Amino acid sequence: MNSIRHSALACLIAFPLLACSNNAPPPAAPADNAPAKGFIGKQVDKAFAKAREEMAKGNIDIGNGPHVTINGKDIGHNTKNLPKAEITPQGDLLIAGKAAPLTADQRQQLLAYRGQIIDIAEAGMAIGSQGVGLADKALSGVAGAIFGGEKGAKEFEAKMEAEGEKIEAEARKLCTRLPAMMASQQALATTLPAFKPYASMTQADIDDCYKDSKDKGAAVMSQ
Q1: Taking the CB of residue 121, how many other CB atoms lie within 10 A of it?
Q2: 158-214 pLDDT, tens per residue?
Q3: Which of 2, 119, 132, 194 has the most other CB atoms within 10 Å of its CB?
Q4: How far apart are CA 155 and CA 5, in angstroms?
């Protein structure tokens, strides 16, 4: 059950560290026929809700904050030696705590880029929630699989593997969001010199994302 372990554990460990945002919607109400979440799922939902609330009033750190990590590899995150840079909910660019001069167009570009980071974070949380759900199902179904004998165990494993593969497929879709993010970085680097050092994503990062996530999934993390 390697894919199950990877999907569930990656989501349980990585996604609660997500940076969320000011326009992140609250979690959707569960459907009437949706199974009740277990203890782990409820705790993760609380963590997501807290992160949304905190980030709604805060800034997004583009130097040492939201980034995409694929199998332990940072994607476009080579800015650790630069001054701290943040994008505020109003579209200001703060570098070492000081606001960079902006035109109206530059501010809109920054807000759009912030929105892309938010979208990836939201997608990551959705995948994380699925991973937690899979972990809950695995835990609750173990007893039945054991008492069902070899046949029951194999059927349970096959079911969990199939659901795990679906989650991994969703995780791989995160890679499709990276070209637009790189384009936004490059556009900002051209129009806003202060942003240029933070436009660190390359085509190699995108290629690596697709390559690594093919077998090992993806995670959105924040340090």
Answers
A1: 25
A2: 666 766 667 677 777 788 889 999 999 999 999 999 999 999 888 988 888 877 665
A3: 132
A4: 17
